[in-house]
Amino acid sequence: MDARAEIRALWQRGAAGRRRAARAASLAVRHETQAALAPESLRALHARMRDLYRQIEARHLAAVRVTELHAIRMERWLNGACGQASRPVFMAAVASALGTPSAAATLRGRRHASVVAAASDATARAAHELEIVLSEGPAADAAAAGTSIAVAGTALLDRWPRYGPAVADLGVRAVTAAPLGPPGARLGALCAYAAEPVIWDGAAAATDRMALALTHMVLLDARVPGSGQGGPVLPVFGADGYPAVVHQAAGMVSVQCDCGVDDAEDLLAARAFATSTPVEQIAIQVVRGETSFC
Asked: Which of 2-11, 226-235, 247-256 has the lowest mean pLDDT?
């Protein structure tokens, strides 16, 4: 897909996301009203539904923000207005939306070492590579625990005796991380890295919302909403490259079939063998919504 078509698709996603957020907000208001008027026995239910729809609204708005920010950056790059030779990367927009200079997203599987599927810059890539080398760090902890974490200053050294000093040498003094994937799946993590030794206000909650948004954008909803057709491969995970697109497809298949990432990789390989098709081509079809497994 060329850059202009990609930009159009990004704006389509943003518009669809705004519609979804507005619908969720409307439902939240409806349940808030019903919570005040309903019998006592039903008020708690309506309150829970109100909170659920507010969370859904926040998730959609997070996705809209990063999608439209990336679209704007792509337009400026295409028009030569930003003085940047290389094509903007999606994770740079994620980092900007989180208010941090660097961010990385990872997917995991036993057969493939945990790799950076996407990084905003060299600092983010190096920070996660340290996790692979030192076998500790924020992405691993967030994915294992299934919850967001935020660590700054000397607490980095206390929590990760090897990783903490090493990442500080990169100029990173604070990190937040949140798991990627639906509840229970824990397919990877989103990490944000900052130079100041403090956790910025709302950092953990913002990272968690963005991780939920990326989960739905990349693993649960690969199509352009409202287009009626399989959308372009989202640029979150560098989808033109192997094995990044295979990792993304494995995450999607694991959700479709309610299985682990490793079993999903086996399903991709089996489909490739049965159809005499390169596994990366099967993966691209999955990510574009052109084929499914369950």
From this structure: 226-235
| Cα 242 to Cα 288: distance, rounded to the nearest angstrom | 15
Q: Please report whether residue 229 resides in a domain.
A: no
Say yes or no: 74 and 98 in one domain. Answer: no
Indicate whether 161 and 47 sit together in one domain: no
Statement to judge: residues 100 and 135 lie in one domain: yes
Strand blocks (E) in the chain: 102-107, 115-119, 149-152, 174-180, 188-194
Q: Structural domain tally of the chain? A: 3
Q: Identify any residues that bridge with 104 across adjacent strands, giving them in sequence order.
A: 119, 191
Among 51-60, 120-129, 231-240, 275-284, which is the least confidently predicted range? 231-240
The residues near 23 (Cβ < 8 Å, ≥ 6 apart) are none
Q: How confident is the model at residue 2 (pLDDT cuts 50, 70, 90)?
A: confident
**C-alpha 199: how far from chain center:** 20
* Pair (120, 213) in one structural domain: yes
Amino acid at 90: F
pLDDT value of residue 240: 40
Q: Is the pLDDT of residue 24 over 90?
A: yes
The mean per-residue pLDDT over the stretch 199-223 comes to 80
Q: Is residue 74 situated within a structural domain?
A: yes
Which residues constitute the domain of residue 125?
A: 90-220
Dihedrals φ, ψ of 149, to 5°?
-135, 155
Task: Decide: residue 156, CB within 10 A, 0-12 exposed, 13-18 middle, 19+ buried.
Answer: buried
For residue 56, being part of any structural domain is answered with yes
Residue 227 lies in a domain: no
What's residue 286's pLDDT? 87
pTM higher than the cut 0.90: no
Please check whether residues 183 and 144 belong to one and the same domain. yes
Burial class of residue 286 in the structure, from the number of CB atoms within 10 Å of its CB (0-12 exposed, 13-18 middle, 19+ buried): buried
Q: Do residues 176 and 250 share a domain?
A: no
